[in-house]
What we know:
It contains twelve helices and seven strands. It is of the alpha/beta class. The chain has one domain (8-289). The chain has a four-stranded mixed sheet with strand order 1-3-7-6. A three-stranded mixed sheet has the order 2-4-5, with no helix packed on it. Helix 4 (83-106) packs parallel to helix 6 (165-183), helix 6 (165-183) packs across helix 8 and helix 9 runs antiparallel to helix 11. The radius of gyration is 17 Å and the shape is globular. The two termini are 33 Å apart.
Amino acid sequence: MRLGPFDTSRINVRSSSAGGGGGARRAGGIGCGTLAIALIGAVVFGLDPMQTIGLVEGVQQQAGPTQSGGGDLTEAEVCATSAYATEACNALNSLNITWESAFVRAGIPFEQPLLDLYRDGRVTTDGCGSATSAAGPFYCPADKAIYIDTSFYDQLAQMSGTGGDFARLYVIAHEYGHHIQTITGLSPQVRSAQQRNPSQANQLQVAMELQADCYAGMWAGRNRSLIEAGDLEEGLKAASAIGDDTLMRNAGQRINPESFTHGTSRQRMEALKLGLESRNDDACDIFFEAG
C-alpha cells in the first residue's frame, strides 16, 4: 500500500523502550478489548491462546497521564527507529486523516489515539497491568493507546505466510478500530452488557473483533487508490491466520465455538472484505444488529 510520509503534527507517537535503560517505560495499559492478534503471539510463543486473553483482560477504570514522543525521543525519532516504525507512523497518519474526516462529516468530536512502539520487551502500564511481547499488538481503552511490539511483525509474516506490508497495516488498522469503538461509546456499552449477561460475553466479544476487522477494511477501501497488487490477498491471509478455529487447530486444541472470542477465519475474512467493498463504517454495525 503506497502510504505517504507521516506528518508529526497529525500523529501522537512514543516508545516505551525509548532511551535505553533496560526497563520498560511507562505506558497506558492493556485494554479489556483483547485482540485477535494477541492470540497469534500466544501461538507463536507456545502459549495457550486463552491464557493470553486472560492476561490482557480486566482493565482498571483510571489511567495515568501519558506523554508523547517516547520520553527521550521525539515523535520523528521514534518513527525513524526502524522500517516497521516508519511504516506504522505512515499508517497512523493515514488512519487519523481518514477517520477524522468521517467524524467531521457526522458532526462527532474526534480524538486521535496514541501509538506506542516498542520492541522485544515488556510494557508496564498504569491502568491495566503489564504485558510481554508474547501478547502481541493490543489497544488500551483506558488511555486510548495502541501498543505494538514491532518484532511481532516478523512472527506475523511466519504465521500468515506473507511478508507483505498490507498484513502489517491490517494489524494497526484493526487496533485503530477498537479506538473508534471506544471514542464512540460502543466499547463501554459492550463491557456493561457482558457484565449483565455473562452468557453472551463471548458472542459480544466476537462482534467487537469482527467490527474492528470491518473498520480496517473500510479504511483501506477509502484509500483504494493507494492499494497495490496483492495487498488484499495479504490482508485476507492474515485475517485467516488469526481466526479462532485456525489458532486452536494449530495449537493442537479442540475447536470449541463456545470459547471463540474473535471469530472464525472465514468470519474475519468476510468482515475485512465487507469494510473494503462498502467503504462505509455504518456497514460495520451489522455485527451488532445481527447479534
